[in-house]
Backbone:
């Protein structure tokens, strides 16, 4: 029983990281419709920024995380305005090729700057060790992941549902032409949403540095998982991917625990089954 | 579309015209390579295998409009099928190659049925997931596949019982060249057939194709299975010519590379594969050895520049140049 | 009594919570020349989409020659002999005019699945495609990519593609849309040469074209059939005038 709860717990933590990274992609997919394979790059850069500020400059963890997010969000905003928007009307193939090219360039730059090995992350003392809750010994780090993640997600959902910015995004996702005609500056909206999405990805990348290792191969290794969360959760939605991310986090953790020889086979098989059943994602409106 | 209106299209049983004979020349020249550049047979064989692989991808990407980043999955299935069969005593090259094609086709069918119901990001993701799934299976089934170390003990009997796979690679060279030729003739016939045209129609406007009574799911599935079989053939040829199968043949990296090779030459243009593959492999040979990071950087930059400035790859640029010259001649 | 070619019974369709087509009973007889008119937003294109299977109804049935085809998908209905044109031109943009028409001919004649024979070896089908191009006066632009055609000629290509299917029932969704009234006679000429066995349902706002073409007119308002009848009756009907034609008639009906 304790094992099951621990698995659940680890799975939820993993799922939260996946969600934080992927939600930006889900929103920009629904908003802009651009297949951005390079989304993982921003998560990776968030991780590198966090680790570098901590290791090289001794900046505390949370502050490094925050700085990393802001820097990456700014980068995302700039890239959207300067590069991405040139490809908005283009074919899917062109978008895929462009974003794949971006991945390759980023992987190379990161490899040259930081070397080919995974970045060691030194968790701050208050995140090391374990915390005992109800007779269960849970790692403090994962506990913090769940707690912090939940807080960010709650904030995100609040912003999405209750603020003007969120309303504008929902309107534009629903019907871009209509949104434009009521005066929403979709061009600026896209850039801001893109920046926000990449900032969140950086947060997920930095926060989850101990879950998804920060190494040059990061965007190539993990992009398929982010795409799975978005595809299963539903493009343009922010609640659907949450369910999808948790489902993937928990089942992946459970599978790896009970049948380690199978590796990630179950997850991929599981994804196929879900999408055969609901090709538009699990939150498909009937 | 240039390829259709530019040159006379022969049916498979057209009489030989001067045009046809001219088109055979590059093939004859390629066949003469061992005389002109001895020692390069293994590299040339690799190029032929990759061109065949790229042709199979072009059917999907360039004609049917199905963008896939998981085509290596089918390539690897072919390679491992041929390799594993040979390890277990079935060493006839043609037989194992056919088995590889069948297994790859079945795999393509199984995944295609799920994948082709979706579109856009979901479809792309599923193509990746299918290859990752196959990779994981091969990775974990070490007793069957050798896992990370690759498949050991692969060896094949002489082709047709006559031509042994020699050290210099001459047999492999001619074997893959002949296979490539047949595949090329087949693909070319398919492109100029009503089926091939309907694929382009599906790519251009699938809603309209439905409205003219076209069973688009069936058509796409057929081309997906054919493409899978050809990719599997390429994988088998790879296994047979190198006498080795590694996890790389199922990897995302290979899926990405083969897409880049095709795009470099120009997709949707029959000869794109023939241009892009040698250019890529030559560049890879030159740059990847020094520093993988530089190779990635170069690839990425070339890819971004090409998509921005020269969509359609080398052949696309060539087409536009020829058009520009023609316009100037008229004026 | 003739067997109806295409029929709907109690057909209703919703978008969200809006009833877009409300309990429509409609019959199109063999060889009939019918027009469907109504104000913008009345649901005319939606109705065509329901007939072809692009949309599924909430309730009701579509019948072809008495056989219920409500559950058949679009491609299958097309193969059973229903052809349509689109209000918003839907062509194969980068393929040539000739290729556009040939695709439809190939599907109609069942050769589209052939993988190995070259297109040009199908002499009969290629000839039929060329003949169709000739019929809509597009022979001179056979090698031009469809997206480069002027708008009016694209509308003609739309019709050619639909005719290539040898439909028994032809649903034309605003074929003359965007074509200046002075040139719409080209469309009328083509419609006049259609075989008598084909039942044609025409949707258009050009009242001149509608009244010259139709034997019968159905008026669709807010998803329901308001009235059906001969052109002169419709023109004289006060309700129609109020709802749609207004007091300033766009076109004059032909003398009864």
Residues:
């Amino acid at each position: 029983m304790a094992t099951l709860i621990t698995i659940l717990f680890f799975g939820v933590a993993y799922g939260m990281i996946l969600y934080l990274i992927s939600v930006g992609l889900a929103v920009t997919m629904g908003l802009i419709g651009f297949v951005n394979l390079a989304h993982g790059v921003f998560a990776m850069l968030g991780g590198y920024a966090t680790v570098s500020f901590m290791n090289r400059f001794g900046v505390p963890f949370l502050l490094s995380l925050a700085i990393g997010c802001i820097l990456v969000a700014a980068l995302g905003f700039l890239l959207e305005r300067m590069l991405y928007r040139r490809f908005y009307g283009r074919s899917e193939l062109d978008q895929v090729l462009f974003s794949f090219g971006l991945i390759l360039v980023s992987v190379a730059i990161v490899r040259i700057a930081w070397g080919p090995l995974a970045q060691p992350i030194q968790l701050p003392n208050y995140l090391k060790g374990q915390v005992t809750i109800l007779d269960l010994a849970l790692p403090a780090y994962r506990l913090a992941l769940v707690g912090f993640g939940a807080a960010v997600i709650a904030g995100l959902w609040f912003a999405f549902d209750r603020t003007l910015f969120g309303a504008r995004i929902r309107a534009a996702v629903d019907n871009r032409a209509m949104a434009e005609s009521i005066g929403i500056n979709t061009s600026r909206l896209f850039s801001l949403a893109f920046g926000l999405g990449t900032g969140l990805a950086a947060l997920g990348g930095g926060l989850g540095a101990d879950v998804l290792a920060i190494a040059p191969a990061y965007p190539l290794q993990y992009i398929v998982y982010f795409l799975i969360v978005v595809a299963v959760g539903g493009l343009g939605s922010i609640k659907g991917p949450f369910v999808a991310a948790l489902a993937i986090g928990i089942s992946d953790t459970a599978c790896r625990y009970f049948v380690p020889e199978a590796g990630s086979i179950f997850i991929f098989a599981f994804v196929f089954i879900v999408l055969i059943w609901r090709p538009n994602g699990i939150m498909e409106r009937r | 579309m240039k390829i259709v209106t530019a040159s006379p299209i022969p049916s498979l049983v057209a009489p030989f015209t001067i045009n046809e004979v001219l088109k055979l020349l590059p093939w004859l020249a390629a066949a003469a390579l061992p005389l002109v550049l001895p020692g390069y047979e293994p590299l040339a064989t690799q190029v032929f295998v990759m061109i065949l692989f790229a042709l199979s991808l072009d059917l999907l990407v360039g004609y049917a409009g199905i963008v896939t980043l998981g085509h290596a999955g089918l390539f690897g299935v072919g390679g491992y099928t041929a390799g594993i069969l040979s390890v277990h005593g079935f060493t006839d090259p043609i037989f194992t190659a056919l088995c590889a094609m069948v297994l790859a086709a079945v795999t393509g069918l199984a995944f295609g049925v799920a994948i082709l119901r979706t579109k856009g990001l979901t479809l792309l993701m599923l193509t990746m997931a299918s290859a990752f799934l196959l990779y994981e299976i091969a990775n974990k089934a070490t007793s069957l596949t050798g896992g990370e170390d690759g498949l050991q003990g692969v060896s094949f009997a002489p082709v047709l019982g006559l031509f042994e796979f020699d050290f210099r690679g001459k047999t492999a060279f001619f074997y893959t060249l002949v296979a490539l030729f047949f595949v090329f003739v087949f693909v070319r016939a398919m492109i100029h057939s009503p089926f091939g045209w309907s694929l382009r129609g599906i790519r251009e406007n699938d809603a309209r194709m439905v409205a003219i009574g076209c069973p688009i799911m069936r058509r796409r599935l057929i081309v997906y299975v054919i493409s899978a079989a050809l990719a599997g053939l390429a994988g088998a040829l790879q296994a047979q010519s190198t006498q080795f199968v590694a996890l790389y043949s199922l990897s995302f990296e290979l899926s990405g590379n083969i897409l880049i090779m095709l795009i470099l030459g120009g997709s949707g243009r029959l000869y794109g594969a023939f241009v892009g593959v040698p250019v890529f492999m030559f560049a890879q040979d030159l740059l990847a050895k020094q520093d993988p990071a530089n190779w990635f950087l170069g690839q990425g930059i070339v890819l971004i520049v090409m998509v921005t400035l020269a969509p359609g790859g080398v052949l696309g640029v060539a087409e536009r140049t020829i058009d520009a010259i023609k316009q100037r001649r008229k004026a | 009594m003739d067997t109806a070619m295409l029929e709907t019974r109690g057909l209703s369709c919703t978008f969200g919570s809006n009833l877009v087509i409300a309990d429509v009973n409609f019959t199109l007889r063999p060889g009939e020349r019918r027009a469907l008119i109504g104000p913008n937003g009345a649901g005319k294109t939606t109705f065509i989409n329901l007939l072809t299977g692009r949309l599924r109804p909430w309730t009701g049935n579509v019948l072809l020659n008495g056989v219920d085809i409500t559950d058949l998908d679009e491609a299958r209905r097309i193969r059973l002999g229903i052809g349509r044109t689109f209000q918003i031109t839907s062509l194969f943009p980068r393929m040539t005019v000739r290729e556009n028409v040939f695709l439809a001919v190939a599907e109609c004649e069942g050769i589209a699945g052939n993988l190995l024979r070259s297109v040009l070896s199908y002499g009969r089908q290629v000839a039929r495609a060329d003949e169709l191009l000739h019929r809509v006066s597009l022979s001179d632009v056979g090698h031009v990519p469809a997206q480069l055609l002027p708008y009016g000629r694209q509308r003609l290509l739309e019709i050619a593609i639909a005719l290539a299917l040898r439909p028994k029932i032809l649903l034309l969704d605003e074929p003359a849309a965007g074509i200046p009234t002075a040139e719409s006679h080209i469309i009328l000429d083509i419609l006049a040469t259609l075989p008598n066995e084909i039942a044609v349902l025409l949707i258009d706002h050009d009242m001149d074209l509608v009244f010259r073409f139709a034997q019968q007119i159905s008026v669709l308002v807010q998803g329901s059939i308001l009235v059906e009848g001969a052109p002169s009756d419709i023109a004289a009907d006060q309700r129609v005038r109020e709802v749609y034609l207004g007091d300033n008639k766009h076109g004059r009906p032909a003398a009864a």
Summary: The two ends of chain C are 25 Å apart (CA to CA). Chain C has a mean pLDDT of 87. Chain C is about 30% helix and 25% strand.
